[in-house]
Design goal:
With about 140 residues, this protein is an alpha+beta fold. It is about 40% helix and about 25% strand. The chain contains five helices and seven strands, in the order ββααββββααβα.
Length: about 140
């Protein structure tokens, strides 16, 4: 069962046998619907947080995972065995390194373990940052 008190406090227990989404899901709905219980709820919370932060972004499936696009790829997210992966690219990770310090991360990705609350406010800040970055890059290309 998942309990969402506010965007920064999502608590849950992992589903020991999550249903896996097909890597060929044709829509974000189909991808999320491919997961049972808490994992599906966490994916829904990620989707809602990103959509609220950047409402003009378009949802699609890219690299087999839910993706938001606005003047190019904005962010991706996906379920893994022990975590939700969030992929804002290197600039998003670098700009929010302090906020992401409690989580395992790499050059362009961060892992949110199932046994910890989702940092949805941070996800929203990163998504807005990436949207601003993509808009600026698009304006430069048009100039």
């Amino acid at each position: 069962m998942i309990c969402v008190q506010n965007l920064s406090q999502t608590v849950s227990k992992p589903n020991p046998k999550p249903m896996r989404a097909s890597s060929t899901s044709e829509s974000v709905d189909a991808y999320i619907d491919g997961f049972d219980g808490d994992i599906g709820e966490r994916l829904k919370a990620m989707r809602k947080a990103i959509a609220a932060a950047v409402p003009e972004a378009v949802e699609t499936i890219s690299y087999g995972m839910p993706t938001f696009r606005l003047d190019g790829n904005l962010v991706h997210f996906a379920a893994a065995k022990k975590h939700i992966g969030f992929y804002p690219g290197p600039s998003g990770i670098e700009a929010f390194a302090q906020d992401l310090a409690p989580f395992k991360s790499s050059k362009g990705a961060v892992q949110f373990p199932y046994d910890q609350p989702l940092p949805l406010e941070t996800v929203q800040k990163i998504s807005r940052f990436r949207a601003d970055e993509n808009r600026a890059n698009a304006a430069t290309r048009k100039a």
